């Protein structure tokens, strides 16, 4: 069902403003790609650079000017729980920070709008390929203006699976066990270092299924609506419809979801984190 979306002070639609904000953030990243980075560690394998905060500030300036009464939540500035009531913009200024800092050109900028916990719209911009993934509730999913649909694969042994290593040590180890248990009952595996792009690639039909043990709201806010609007399904590790607060994520089509859930039944990866 199509949902009415707010407009900014300028009168422009929220989805258009979100795309502009993501594109501006992406241009900053692209222009400074390959430079020496100041790296700080937020946890094992979880880093932040000066570019994360620089891009987040630039996006917040745009969103704050257009929507002064909405919450602004970013990966680098988030403190405490994300509001479950009202409108909230959720931003990942650099998804794939490790790739970016290492000179690997696979990263993106995520901007999503949530109302009362439900994702209304999301964009994910890859500045290196100039690819803008976008979706709004009830209006479909698009890549640079062209309609998207998830892949039509019917069996896991015909499919490309994607995953990324969780910052949770047990989650990462258990994710690898999932792959080992399915192999060779799939075509191949992709581990690319950006969960936002990993999910978006499922929406675009480039890969058939993506899973991750545990993601933050800013990692998956755009991907959830992209996959659903592209005709796919997004669930948590128990098979319930995923939200930005979900404990883990699986995105694919309905046929492959059923097979994946059967293949992973009883495995440690499926157990709740909390």
What does this structure look like?
With 274 residues, the chain is of the alpha+beta class. It is built from 7 helices and 14 strands. It has 2 domains: 134 residues, Fructose-1,6-Bisphosphatase, subunit A, domain 1 (Fructose-1,6-Bisphosphatase, Chain A, domain 1, 2-Layer Sandwich), CATH 3.30.540.10; 111 residues, 3-Layer(aba) Sandwich (D-Maltodextrin-Binding Protein, domain 2), CATH 3.40.190.80. The longest helix has 18 residues. The protein is globular.
What attributes characterize this protein structure?
five-stranded mixed β-sheet; Fructose-1,6-Bisphosphatase, Chain A, domain 1; 7 helices; D-Maltodextrin-Binding Protein, domain 2; 25% strand; 14 strands; globular; seven-stranded mixed β-sheet; alpha+beta; single chain; 2 domains; 274 residues
Give me the secondary-structure topology.
Elements lengths: L13 H18 L7 E5 L2 E4 H17 L4 E4 L12 E9 L1 H5 L6 E8 L2 E9 L4 E6 L4 E3 L2 E2 L12 E4 L5 H14 L5 E3 L4 H9 L5 E4 L4 H13 L3 E3 L13 E4 L1 H10 L11
Parallel strand pairs: 3-4, 10-11, 10-12
Antiparallel strand pairs: 1-2, 4-5, 5-6, 6-7, 7-8, 8-9, 12-14, 13-14
Helix pairs in contact: 1-2, 5-6
């Amino acid at each position: 069902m199509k949902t009415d979306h707010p407009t900014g002070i300028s009168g422009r639609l929220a989805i258009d403003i979100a795309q502009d904000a993501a594109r501006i953030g992406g241009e900053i990243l692209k222009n400074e790609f390959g430079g020496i980075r100041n790296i700080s560690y937020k946890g094992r394998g979880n880093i932040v650079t000066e570019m994360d905060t620089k891009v987040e500030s630039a996006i917040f300036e745009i969103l704050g000017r257009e929507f002064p009464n909405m919450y602004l939540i970013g990966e680098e500035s988030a403190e405490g729980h994300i509001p479950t009531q009202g409108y909230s913009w959720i931003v990942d200024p650099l998804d794939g920070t490790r790739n970016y800092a290492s000179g690997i050109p696979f990263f993106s900028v995520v901007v999503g709008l949530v109302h009362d916990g439900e994702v209304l719209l999301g964009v994910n911009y890859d500045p290196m390929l100039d690819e803008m993934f976008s979706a709004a509730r009830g209006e479909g999913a698009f890549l640079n203006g062209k309609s998207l649909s998830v892949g039509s694969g019917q069996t896991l042994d015909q499919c490309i699976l994607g995953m990324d290593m969780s910052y949770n040590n047990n989650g990462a180890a258990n994710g690898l066990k999932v792959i080992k248990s399915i192999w060779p009952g799939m075509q191949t595996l992709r581990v690319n270092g950006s969960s936002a792009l990993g999910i978006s690639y499922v929406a675009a039909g480039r890969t058939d299924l993506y899973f991750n043990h545990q993601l933050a709201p800013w990692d998956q806010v755009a991907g959830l609506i992209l996959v659903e609007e592209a005709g796919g399904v997004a669930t948590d590790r128990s098979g319930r419809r995923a939200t930005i607060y979900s404990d883990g994520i699986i995105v694919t089509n309905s046929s492959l979801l059923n097979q994946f859930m059967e293949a992973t039944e009883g495995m440690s990866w499926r157990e709740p984190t909390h």
